[in-house]
Design goal:
transmembrane, cell membrane, globular, 299 residues, single chain, 82% helix, membrane, mainly alpha
Length: 299
């Protein structure tokens, strides 16, 4: 019982992060299941089953706060579902350990780009509102869905930075759209795992515990993303991507455990500094905007 309560709390924390930043639910939850001895395919299958409920709750919550672009959801979610089904079928039969370092490098690069862009350069408003082409969304969705199923998480770490980097959507819209479209990905991955592994692939108690925690956190996270400044969201998202993928690289290249803690502490310190810098600039921009509005009223 204690273990189930602990897993429910992890599910709550994971969804709070995922719903606020558009990533990390699958990565966090899968890591926990692997740590207690669940094999990779069963861990990913269990997490994706729980995500059917958590992503539905998250999508509804984000919709209520106006954080979802439903046109983008359809054009990225359907290809994502196809990719997830293929990924689940692959993971049911082979290991993807060789691909992990390559993917970590790609995601780390994207994370650094997002972190630097939103910390120091704010959001480009020149392209906000421009239509994202299907020829960009469809391959992105297919690729992200495949990685999500084979890695136990990846829809957010792949999709969120790519949409943020496009400069065509507000961070809150990116996060809400990615979370809502993940519902389709989770259903497709679960079907793929069920076909590939059968019913024994799911650990019902763990899936329910993760689901309960995630459903509780979903509306809280949606409220946070609606009210937090975009610069802070971008800096936080970039820091999270960097931390998650540096961890993957350390494991992939067998870096001595003694070196892990200093590296993690450095990344966390850099992330906190980025958040502080972003908050400072956000306050300066708000003050300048208020002054400009005051001058306009006087004029």
């Amino acid at each position: 019982m204690f273990r189930l309560i602990l897993i429910a709390l992890v599910g709550l924390a994971a969804q709070l992060v995922d719903g606020s930043l558009g990533m990390a639910y699958g990565v966090t939850s899968t890591t926990l299941l692997l740590a207690i001895g669940t094999n990779p395919a069963m861990a990913s299958a269990t997490v994706h089953l729980a995500e059917i409920g958590t992503t539905l709750a998250s999508g509804v919550s984000h919709h209520r706060f106006g954080n979802v672009d439903w046109k983008v959801v359809a054009r990225i979610g359907i290809p994502g579902a196809i990719g997830a089904f293929l990924g689940a079928s692959v993971l049911s039969n082979i290991s993807t350990e060789l691909a992990a370092p390559i993917m970590a490098v790609i995601l780390l690069t994207l994370g650094l780009y997002v972190l630097i862009r939103f910390t120091f350069f704010n959001i480009s408003t020149k392209r906000l509102g421009e239509r994202l082409p299907t020829k960009f969304l469809a391959p992105l969705g297919t690729f992200a869905g495949f990685i999500d199923a084979t890695g136990g998480g990846g829809w957010g770490p792949v999709g969120t930075p790519a949409l943020l980097a496009s400069g065509r959507m507000e961070p809150r819209k990116v996060i809400g759209t990615i979370d809502a479209s993940e519902f389709l990905v989770s259903i497709a991955a679960s079907i793929g795992f069920f076909i590939g592994l059968g019913g024994e692939a799911i650990v019902p108690g763990l899936a329910i515990a993760l689901l309960v925690g995630g459903v509780i956190a979903a509306p809280i996270a949606a409220w946070l993303v609606r009210h937090l400044p975009p610069r802070l969201l971008g800096a936080a998202a970039g820091s999270t991507i960097v931390l998650v993928n540096v961890r993957s690289l350390l494991k992939a290249f067998d870096v001595p455990p003694a070196a892990h803690v200093p590296i993690y502490l450095f990344i966390v310190a850099a992330g906190l500094a980025a958040l502080a810098w972003s908050l400072r600039n956000h306050r300066i921009e708000r003050a300048q905007q208020a002054a400009a509005e005051g001058e306009a009223v006087v004029a």
